[in-house]
Amino acid sequence: MKKMLSVMLAAMMLLSLLAMPALAEDQVLTVVTWDATTTPYLIAQKEAFEASHPGVKIEYVDVASQDYAVKTTTMLEGGDKSDVIMIKEIDNLINWQAQGFAAPLTDYIGGYDLSGFVGTEANYAVDGVQYAIPFRSDFWVLFYNKDLFDAAGVEYPTNDMTWDQYAELAKKMTDKEKDVYGTHYHTWLSAVANWAVCDGVNTLADRNYDDLLYFYKLYQDLEDSGACMSYADLKASGLHYSAAFANGNVAMMPMGYWYVSTLIGYNKDGTCNFNWGITAVPHAEGVAAGSSFGNLTGAMINAKSEQKDLAWEYVSWLGGVEGAKATASTGARPAWVSEDVAAAMSSVEGFPADETSKGALLPAAVAMEWPVAEKVSDIKTIVNEEHTMIMTREITPEEGIEEMNERVAELFE
Amino acid sequence: MEAAVHSREIRKDNPTLRKILRTVIWILLILLSAFTLIPFVWMVSSSLKLDREVFAFPMRWIPETFHWENYSLIWQRVPLVTYFKNTAFIAVVVTVLQTLTSSFAAYAFAKLSFRGRDALFLCYIGTIAVPWQAYMLPQFIMMRSMGLYDTLWAMVVLQAFSAFGVFLMRQFYRSIPSELCEAARLDGLSEYGIWARIMLPLSKAAIATLVIFTFVSTWNDYMGPMIYLTRDINKTVQVGLRRFIQENSSDYHLIMAASLCSLLPVSVVFLCLQRYFIEGIATSGLKG
Amino acid sequence: MSQAEVKKVRHRMGKLERKNTLVAYSFLAPNFIGFAVFTLVPVICAVLLSLFEWNGGDISKLKFVGLENYATIFATKKVAEKGIEYFFNRVDLGIALKNTVYYTVVTVPLTIVCALALALLLNKIKGAVFFRTVFFFPYVSSMVAICVCWSFMLMKDGPINQIIMALGINFNKGWTADSTMAIWSIILVSVWRNMGYYMVLYLAALQGIPRELMEAATVDGANKWQQFLHVTLPQLKPTTFFVSVMMVISCFKIYDVVAIMTDGGPGRATKMLVTYIYDEAFVKVRYGQASAIAMILLIIVLAVTMIQFSSEKKFSND
């Protein structure tokens, strides 16, 4: 009996010795992100990184996207040691940096080539210190349903259209009998009025919102003429823009570039089976065609990570050319811009083949949806609150903009 | 007075009037329950549609084609079985602990007098009044240092000792006449004996209520598991449900299907326990 | 009784009291220990936090600021300058307070009346099992699903508006998109969801009324209404106390429905105290101010509870 026990113990020890190196062999890098199992580019990035870095495994910590900031902040406050944290919105990084959760990249960034980010990386720098690397940069484009335009015998939208021309086109495409809407606006501020920042001069933090008026008026005119669904109904039903466009009764929709990969996926699984294309978003009078705005998705290294070198290896790979190719292969737009990355983007299976769509891939200028600025999250709340008031027609656009100006001014008194 | 007696006699002697009254009540109840159930009908119908049909206008109560596959899709899309197991574990353990400890504590608050009773009780109520969002952070930091983060036990300790149960049981115990306890004390029963032999059997309805409430609120809790549970093997049904709402798409048809499934276990618990509302002390032959 | 005897009795009484206290604490301990560690301590932390400025991160960054957080959320300077209307119409806290109180004042009595009525109707009737289950259903189902569902019901051309139109009332706007109706959509969903819950409480309490009391009342010649007024209602007092306290508290803490259905909008029409706290804590990362708002909530609720408590003591029959 005793003998058996000792043999068993010895065997167990032997086994554990054998198992130890096997465990130590793989280095595991934990990455906090959202929608990890269903987002194509996350899957592609993981595969590509693991293939080029044998012995390293990526483990995603999957957080629900709508609660990403709350959950991740709480985790970090609690001393979480995950290696890499992905950044959904720029404010996240600004907050986390102020709280000391982001490791400065000063020691690493020395020999790293930032040229491909064309300056966007500056949004992730605080007082001249870089804290994160962007890997996705989405700007807004105009999606349109080719089949609807063909059926109506109307020419496709182009990469050089003013907002007035676009509005006219939207009204032309509207067919109430066939239940076709000329255009579709999602409920966000960014879909309706953010266009004012495309000129590269205005920002949403410049404390003056008069320039939004034109876009609210344009929207209300379209809504009144029945060229788009009403905001109130969209808000109440929670109808997602992806379903709205995929339904096939919407001729145009301004939306972020990320929707390309969703649409490609829809074409593949048969959720929608019409032809679509993209163009640059319309531009205001006096603003260069192809000007748009967008936002960044990036990754930072957790200050509490115990393997920062490996984390940097991953983050720098993610932002660089190799990572960009993996990202682009799924239809998402990487932050790194270069010829071969653009080629990779347009050669994705399912991407519209026409020249206009390819041309839309190269915007003339991309402003930031929200700038990095003092009290920007307070401003965001105010502007969004007044936005809902204008959109539900509780107040007129003029009144709403006056409120924005007044309330934002109060913040700085 | 005479009129009152008279009217009562009429009612007693007049079966038709009684019948009419019954029918009126019945019609009222049926209308009310229709109002209550309409949203559920919509949920069932949506769960059998395609995502883009869910909010299509004009609305259809009966889907064009029945997409029964939604109900198998939800189990493939996310590990719903694991989520169900976790939720069931948390809900059962919390319910047992909550019921036991709070009926124990409530006895002291309701039937014993001791120094600091009112202050302590106010303390309990005070904490109910503080929204969780306000102390979530200190609590999280503490739980994490105890090594409870991302374990099911975090959810257990979080919910098992809530002030709610104590308060509920105290109120029920207060409605039981104190003379009963006095009599038992004179008979030489210890306080523990009184709790076990008199209070507990008399508060069946209350306990059933508490069990249902605790079970349901634990089962449907979202914020707690969202913050505390991270790995897929630890997530609960409510957290899993939100996985159908993603950044760039949302599958409301699947949400409806999954939430209808998650409704089943709680409904079973309710159905099993609700008979205790009929067998309260009224039929147990209490003589005051 | 001699001096010594009195002393002796007192001594014995003291001993008894001490023993009683010990027994009482032994009853409390299992719950209280868990409660103190996992709830009370964090709550006390939150109370203290309201006196500090802390934007998260290292504990060393905590800065004691006294009542400054309170001054900020009350916008004291501005309010002193522009008067109290400014507070309730322009300041976030004022608006959130106004909305929350409005919501609570309407929802609590409405729910109690509905719950009690349902409980009385279902107390002794055929088919009660079925109806009880039906009315409890809303409470059992998951929040996201029912909120999505109700948002749809309350749309401009949704079923509810169709019924309203059929009744001849001219209202064609989405409820959640209207500044005055948005809060009513929250109220409607809350009442719909919670009346079954409180109905269950009342049902349980109705079972607790000794049948003898009812019989005695009948013998005394009371009709149903008198019976209800003089027997049932007083017997339900502890439950009503519980229900009203819990409802006031939970109404003041309303969050889920608002977050899913209106997100505080349109504008600030449904901004509530807890949505405000959430925003301050997790969007703006000002934990000190978030705690300060929570303290305002705590003080209000405690005050209301104390009033309810003293009335419970005054009217309770034991």
Q: Provide a count of the helices of chain A.
A: 18
**Can you count the beta strands of chain A?**
11
Using only C-alpha atoms, the radius of gyration of chain C works out to 25 Å
Write the CATH homologous superfamily of the largest domain in chain C: MetI-like
**Radius of gyration of chain A from CA coordinates:** 24 Å
Largest interface: B-C, 115 and 105 residues
Number of domains of chain C: 2
Number of domains of chain A: 2
Strand order of the largest sheet of chain C: 1-2
CATH architecture of the largest domain in chain A: 3-Layer(aba) Sandwich
Shape of chain C: flat
- Tell how many strands the DSSP assignment of chain C holds: 2
Largest sheet of chain A: 9 strands, mixed
What does the average pLDDT of chain C come to? Answer: 84
Gross morphology of chain A? globular
CATH fold group of the largest domain in chain C: MetI-like fold
Descriptors:
heterotrimer, A: 413 residues, D-Maltodextrin-Binding Protein, domain 2, 2 domains, nine-stranded mixed β-sheet, 18 helices, 11 strands, 44% helix, globular, B: 288 residues, disordered C terminus
Q: What's the short story on this structure?
A:
The complex is a heterotrimer of chains A (413), B (288) and C (318). With 288 residues, chain B is mostly helical.
Walk me through what this model shows.
The complex is a heterotrimer of chains A (413), B (288) and C (318). Chain A has 413 residues and is of the alpha/beta class. In chain A, 44% of the residues lie in helices and 16% in strands. Chain A folds into 2 domains: 26-138 and 295-346, D-Maltodextrin-Binding Protein, domain 2; 139-293 and 361-411, Periplasmic binding protein-like II (D-Maltodextrin-Binding Protein, domain 2). Chain A has 18 helices and 11 strands. Chain A is globular, with a radius of gyration of 24 Å. The termini of chain A are far apart. Mean pLDDT of chain A is 87; it is low at 12-23. Chain B has 288 residues and is mainly alpha-helical. Chain B has 2 domains: 2-47; 72-283, MetI-like (MetI-like fold, Orthogonal Bundle), CATH 1.10.3720. Chain B has 15 helices and no strands. With 318 residues, chain C is mainly alpha-helical. Chain C has 2 domains: 3-49, no CATH class; 80-315, MetI-like fold, CATH 1.10.3720.10. Chain C is 76% helix and 1% strand. Chain C has helices spanning 3-49, 68-74, 76-82, 84-89, 92-123, 128-140, 143-153, 159-166, 181-207, 211-219, 224-235, 237-252, 256-261, 273-283, 287-315, and strands at residues 52-53, 63-64. A two-stranded antiparallel sheet of chain C has the order 1-2. Chain C starts with a helix and ends with a helix. The mean pLDDT of chain C is 84. Chains in contact: A-B, A-C, B-C.
